[in-house]
Amino acid sequence: MSLPDSRIILGFIAGGVWSGLNLLLLKQLAALLSSPTPSRRRLVLLLIAKFGGLYPFGIWVLWSRVVSPWAFAAGFTVVLAGFAFRVAVPALSRSSSHV
Under a CB-based contact definition with an 8 Å cutoff, are residues 73 and 14 in contact? Predict the structure, then answer.
């Protein structure tokens, strides 16, 4: 495998992992903020992980050109599309059964 091939593969994987972690942190934040008594300590830790760790890492990966930015975007998008499909299909099946 040549260097450009590895940058594309690593970019796709990195984009998917980054997107998955971002969705996981968003889910955790939503659950925490919708609870009757959210823990301030947990909220601060989640915000630090998301905005102090995940976002700077993503920016560094894209600016440093360690991986292909297009492949990173593709991996990011595939995870989002999978998540949207997972959410939409059960909702569509529920709505069609009520007709």
Answer: no
